Amino acid sequence: ITVKQTKKQTEVTIDMKTIYYKDELNDDFAATQGIQTKPLPKDYQWIHTGRLWNFFADILYYLIVYPLVKIFNTFIIGLRIKNPRVIKKLKTGCFLYSNHTQHIDPLISATVSGWGHRTYFVAGNDAFSITGLKHLVAMLGAMPIGYNIDSMKEMLRTVTKRIQEKSCITIYPEAHIWPYYVGIRPFTSVSFAYPVALNAPVVASVVTYRKRRWPFRCFFRYPAITVYCSDPMYANPSLSKKAAKEDLRNRVYEWMKETAEKYSTYEFWRYEKK
After folding, report:
1. Which one, of 105, 274, 128, lies nearest residue 174 by Cα?
2. Cα 180 from chain centroid?
3. How is residue 165 annotated by DSSP?
4. What's the CA angle centered on 71, arms 259 and 180, to 5 degrees?
5. How far apart are the first and last CA of the chain?
6. In this predicted model, what pLDDT tens digit does every residue of 2-41 receive, in sequence order?
């Protein structure tokens, strides 16, 4: 921030932060390089069946974290949701696909899905590598990514159970965090195998940013957030599983891209390719 003072007025110029990237698919700006990612233990418990564990997990989620997140999203980040009741109207479990532009994206997704749908989210193994926090993030709904045959089977079993429980599973197909990025990065169809296999509805969402209005600009440096949600999409049953996966991915990607181009117009951080 540059301040130039004259006799008549004071001019303040804010220099926009510019981030340079090389690879849209693999570059990551999450600032988690200090975390030493550890492989999941072979005896990792994907689904907790203990009554005591689940009791405290529900207390933590519904009575502590969810109300605080609701307050934080409303008054601190100025969250607005377009088409807010789309998930609440569903009578089944669903998948929520979103762009990945914040470390707090899971907190935003919890508000988007609403009180009626317990929200889970797919997270990298670095979230389970922090000593003392791996059980906490699991209680809050984090699910690790399967990296081998056995863990991928466990992940599918876990996702199936959560959908049967009418929960909302959030997936970030872009995989890596690009803070305040206004576009939609390319992503593969790998994660769309789950809604195809389970015949579950998919809701696409796009996190966009808007400039704070006066007087909120005096208190908050960062922009406010608006989330746009699509109507439910379903896999095409007339296609093979592989073709249906690609088709569903394409429809979600096109909707997200068109929505971002139309509504994600406030560029707080600029990204330029090297």
Report:
1. 105
2. 13
3. T
4. 35
5. 25
6. 434 444 443 333 447 899 999 888 898 876 555 667 777 7
The per-residue pLDDT for range 218-260, each reduced to its tens digit, is 677 889 999 999 999 999 999 999 999 999 999 999 999 999 9
In the sheet with 80-82, reading across from the earlier edge strand, the strands are: 80-82, 224-229, 202-210, 94-98, 168-171, 119-123, 142-144
Residue 239's nearest CA partner among 205, 169, 189 is 189
The two structure tokens encoding residue 161: 């159970």
E strands within 39-118? 80-82, 94-98
- Separation in Å, CA 51 to CA 56, 57, 58, 174, 244: 9, 10, 10, 35, 38
Instruction: Assess contact for 170 and 121: CB atoms under 8 A.
Output: yes
Q: Which two tokens stand for residue 170?
A: 């959030």
Between the alpha carbon of residue 227 and those of residues 88, 131, 135, 249, the distances in Å are 16, 33, 29, 20
